[in-house]
Design a protein that fits this description.
15 helices
């Protein structure tokens, strides 16, 4: 009969991995070319990387080489997750006593030789509560079973959140908005007697700074459903179809509608504040959807890092640049919508990612932003 032998190092690693995954929401990372090391990532934590090294560090040169290796892996993770900063909590289990560990700018290193109060105090100030939450009583096979069951339960919970967020859903709100835009385009075409002229658009509720200041505040929203020509309509509907369907699938119908409408209003507020000309079109709200995608993608950057870096950010920058270079484009509405969409998404939250404090901060920032624009417009 085969027996399972667990070394002291193995026990420490299992207890630490159990804590960081189940209590601190870290996720294991596969790092190629390493042996006897565990890498964990949590992009929302103070230390985005936790690394546990069981290898023996026997001299200063090996320690410096090890730090160089950590920095190289951190750069790869930083690039993949589109993170602005990257730091690591580096735990050694076996280090020559003569070696003096020096903290790097972005790497905090400690030596942990056992799981007891004296040793875990080294981590307590960085991860408060770890001393009481570490598995300490279980040993041998019981430890393996408990660690495996708890980590599997945590992984299953995370997988359910991921599946609920990304699985294909029935898209309704985006198509209803598109249908309203098409309907109002034909209405404006009829009112304008064969063309969507300024008279028809103004009559149907185009964004007009002077009219809004005189009390016609509904124009902040109605103007975002009107379009000045078939090309204008087609471009916005195409953008809405591509971006809107994706975002509605990610955040759900109610949150999507909230983000779209507030983005539309904030875009109109920004436009009315700095421009006296008539403004129509869904592009301000669409930029709000891009702002929302920016917030969503950043929080799911472990999965969408490449999309965020290669598609979403370049698309925003390119369209803003074109808005400044070309005439006839209301770039103020784009900027207003972008900010509004980002802040609204922060306020309504992202399933499985946003904390109550994040949402509260989002609500406060959104209210201040909209209040500031409104006060400036109506003063």
């Amino acid at each position: 009969m085969n027996t399972i032998t667990i070394t002291k190092k193995d026990e420490i690693v299992m207890r630490l991995v159990h804590y960081f995954i189940t209590e601190e929401n870290y996720t294991p990372i596969i790092v190629h070319g390493v042996k006897d090391e565990v890498w964990l990532e949590n992009s929302e934590a103070k230390y985005k990387i936790v690394r546990i090294n069981s290898n023996y560090i026997h001299n200063e040169e090996q320690f410096k080489t090890d730090l160089f290796k950590i920095k190289n892996v951190m750069r790869q993770i930083k690039k993949k997750t589109v993170s602005f900063s990257m730091n690591a909590f580096n735990i050694f289990l076996d280090v020559n006593d003569e070696i003096h560990l020096e903290d790097d700018k972005n790497i905090k290193s400690i030596v942990l030789k056992d799981i007891n109060n004296k040793e875990t105090n080294k981590i307590e100030k960085f991860f408060p509560g770890i001393e009481n939450k570490l598995l300490k009583e279980e040993k041998g096979l019981d430890l393996i079973i408990n660690v495996t069951e708890d980590i599997n339960a945590k992984t299953e919970k995370n997988n359910r959140i991921y599946e609920a967020t990304f699985k294909p859903k029935r898209i309704i709100v985006t198509y209803v908005i598109m249908a309203i835009c098409v309907f109002l385009f034909f209405v404006s075409f009829i009112v304008g007697k064969g063309e969507t002229d300024a008279y028809a658009l103004n009559l149907l509720g185009a964004v007009s700074s002077s009219a809004i200041r005189n009390g016609q505040i509904w124009r902040l929203l109605t103007g975002t459903f009107l379009h000045a020509g078939i090309i204008h309509l087609f471009v916005n509907l195409y953008s809405l179809c591509i971006i809107g369907t994706q975002l509605e699938n990610f955040v759900g119908k109610k949150k999507f509608l909230t983000i779209y409408l507030i983005s539309a209003i904030s875009g109109s507020l920004m436009s009315s504040l700095f421009s006296l000309s008539l403004s129509v079109g869904a592009s301000g709200a669409i930029f709000g959807l891009l702002g929302s995608m920016l917030y969503f993608g950043y929080h799911y950057r472990l999965y969408l890092g490449n999309v965020l870096r290669a598609q979403i950010v370049p698309l925003i920058l390119m369209n803003l640049f074109l808005g400044f270079m070309l005439t006839g484009i209301d770039n103020l509405a784009h900027i207003g919508g972008l900010i509004g969409g980002y802040l609204t998404t922060m306020a309504v939250g992202i399933h499985g990612k946003s904390s109550k404090s994040d949402q509260l901060n989002g609500y406060i920032a959104l209210v201040i932003y909209l209040a500031f624009l409104s006060i400036m417009l109506f003063r």
